[in-house]
Fold this sequence. Notes:
CATH topology of the largest domain: Rossmann fold
CATH class of the largest domain: Alpha Beta
CATH superfamily of the largest domain: CoaB-like
Largest sheet: 9 strands, mixed
Number of domains: 2
Structural class: alpha/beta
Strand order of the largest sheet: 1-20-19-18-17-14-9-12-13
Distance between the termini: 22 Å
Helix content: 25-40%
Number of strands: 20
Amino acid sequence: MESAPGIKAVSLADKKIILGVSGGIAAYKAAELCRLLIKAGADVRVVMTAAAQQFVTPLTFQALSGKPVLTSLWDAASGDGMEHIHLSRDADLLLVAPASADFLAKLAHGRADDLLSTLCLARACTLAVAPAMNREMWAAAPTRRNLEQLQLDGVSVLGPAAGEQACGETGLGRMLEPGEILAALPGVLNAGPLAGKRVLITAGPTFEPIDPVRGLTNLSSGKMGYAVARAAAEAGAEVCLVSGPTCLDTPAGVRRIGVQSAADMRRAVLAELPSDVFIAVAAVADYRVNAAAPQKIKKSTDGMTLHLVANPDILAEVAALPDAPFCVGFAAETERLAEHAEAKRRKKRLPLLVGNLAQDTLGEDTAELVLFDDRGQHRLPRADKLTQARHLIRHLVNQLN
């Protein structure tokens, strides 16, 4: 049994990035993001709004980037007053982090009343935003409409995350951590080893209704599937995540489709094909009730008998298609892992299968995995699930090549 290869660190060498900083307490995180971008090899130029300067001084970013910070539409640095035109012409990416609710509204409606918003409107490069705001602002209907419009306009939205906020409240709206934003950028720029590839991933459990309030499900947190989706996006892939019910945040740069039952998941997966890679991480319920009751079944001392029928095998169906993608399966066993996992791989004719012992992994933040392919078994010693997902993606890339 051999060890699987590691994954390379994020590299943005020679990428020209404009870092836009709008107003909000998360502006302090933009300083660390600037440092990480420089460390990753990027050529960074910082543009700040007037509101951003109330939280962090331009001198901070000048020291980090080694270049003057642009703050005014009327800056004469370019000589012809056209900095808002020239700046993006040779840039690879315009990244606004943090992007406040006000700034997102400007972008959605095409307003251009300062240097950064004008630069976004006149850009000739990819635009990505990392939202940061109070949870109620994030949930507000106008913000939702603005985000929908920006995504329709081709803007990449990174985050936000859930957690404790500066206002003292807790919820969705925190800007992603600088390291998370950095890891998502190769996907935004199509710069990773999976650039140009479409990767379809399933994650989480499915829920099969018995009646309107009860159902059958599997013990799955979705953590492994979400980690794989994030790792695939970091590698530059266009990632679609078909997820059963979980409480997890969608990884940056990943498009998520929420489903409930195995039948829902099958429909969503087939609708997203063709893809280059299909990774079936979801713990799909093997059985469903033949006919779910339309009303709540009342409790009885007589017991209850359920007539169960088999659910479709989504992975086997996709792997058997004439133009099947590169298929990766997961096998959670409770005993004789190597025997059962390899038998499953051969039965479904999979080029790669990931095996683990369920009792050691379900609900945990770490996992010990074994990769099975035509060359044999490749053990991944216990590590956090994101690290394991990155190892898996690197192994997959090697097989694709």
